[in-house]
C-alpha cells in the first residue's frame, strides 16, 4: 500500500500530499503518516514505502496503543530480545487517547535511514496477534510481505513490550509494564497525554531513528526503569480497569 505523505519542515506536519509527489523543496522533509488504531486494530497504511531521510510519523487513535520494532521471523517480540546487540530499536511507549478527545493526536516519529525492511507491531494486549502489525519498505510480493508477517503474528505465543522477558505478559494478554516512566501503562485506558520532544542521535548504520516521542520510551531507559515501570503499570492498570 502506498504511504500517506506530507511535506514539512518539521516532523509534526499534518497536511497530506499525494503519494509519489515530487521531491520536497530544499529544507523540507518527506513525512509519511501512519494512523495507529483508526477504526480497528490496524496500522494504516500497513506498509510505508520511504526513502532514506524520510520521516514516518505514527498518529495514535483511541484507546491505547504502541509501536515496537521487531524482526520479521519473531513478530510480537521486541527486536532486542532477538538481537542482543540491537541498541537503536524504536519503541513509542503506550499512547493513551480518550475516545472523544478533541486534542491533537499523540505522535511518534522515526527517521528512515536506508531502504531495508523495518517491521513493527502494537504490544498492547493481543493486538499484535489480532493483526496490528506493519512495516516500512516491506516487499509487496514473495515470502516477506506484510501479509506473511501478520500470519506469523497470528500464532505468536506472547505479545511483549521492551523490558519484558518471556512469561511476563499479564494473564489477560495485556503487557504488564511500560518501558519508561513517561509511557502509559497497559490496559485499554482512556486517559489523555501531552506531547513532548526527545533529542535524538543519528548514525548512518541505524535503520530508523527516533525524533519525537509523546511518551518517551527510549530503549536506553529500559534497564534503568523497568522495575519502576512494572510497579506503575500494575497500579495504573488497576485504576483504569
TrEMBL record:
Q: Which residues form a coiled coil?
A: none
CDD domains named among the record's database cross-references: Cupredoxin (cd00920)
Ranges for region Disordered:
164-219
Tell me the SUPFAM superfamilies matching this sequence.
Answer: Cupredoxins
What is the top-level taxon of the source organism? Eukaryota
Q: Where is the composition biased (Polar residues)?
A: 199-214
**Compositional bias of type Low complexity: which residue ranges?**
164-189
Protein name as annotated: Cupredoxin
Amino acid at each position: 500500500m502506498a504511504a500517506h505523505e506530507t511535506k514539512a519542515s518539521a516532523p509534526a506536519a499534518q497536511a497530506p500530499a499525494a503519494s509519489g509527489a515530487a521531491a520536497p523543496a530544499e529544507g523540507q522533509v518527506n513525512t509519511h503518516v501512519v494512523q495507529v488504531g483508526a477504526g480497528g486494530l490496524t496500522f494504516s497504511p500497513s506498509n510505508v514505502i520511504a526513502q532514506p531521510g524520510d520521516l514516518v510519523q505514527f498518529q495514535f487513535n483511541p484507546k491505547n496503543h504502541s509501536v515496537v520494532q521487531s524482526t520479521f521471523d519473531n513478530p510480537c517480540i521486541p527486536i532486542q530480545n532477538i538481537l542482543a546487540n540491537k541498541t537503536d530499536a524504536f519503541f513509542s511507549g503506550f499512547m493513551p487517547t480518550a475516545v472523544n478527545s478533541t486534542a491533537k493526536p499523540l505522535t511518534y516519529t522515526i527517521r528512515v535511514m536506508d531502504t531495508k525492511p523495518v517491521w513493527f507491531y502494537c504490544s498492547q494486549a493481543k493486538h499484535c496477534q489480532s493483526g496490528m502489525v506493519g512495516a516500512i519498505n516491506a516487499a509487496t510480493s514473495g515470502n516477506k510481505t506484510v501479509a506473511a508477517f501478520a500470519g506469523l503474528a497470528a500464532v505468536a505465543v506472547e505479545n511483549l513490550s521492551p523490558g519484558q522477558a518471556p512469561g511476563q505478559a499479564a494473564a489477560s494478554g495485556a503487557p504488564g509494564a511500560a518501558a519508561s516512566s513517561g509511557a502509559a501503562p497497559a490496559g485499554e485506558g482512556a486517559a489523555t497525554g501531552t506531547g513532548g520532544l526527545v533529542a535524538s542521535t543519528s548514525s548512518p548504520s541505524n535503520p530508523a531513528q527516533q525524533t519525537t516521542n509523546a511518551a518517551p520510551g527510549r530503549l536506553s531507559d529500559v534497564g534503568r526503569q523497568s522495575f519502576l515501570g512494572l510497579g506503575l503499570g500494575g497500579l495504573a492498570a488497576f485504576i483504569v480497569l
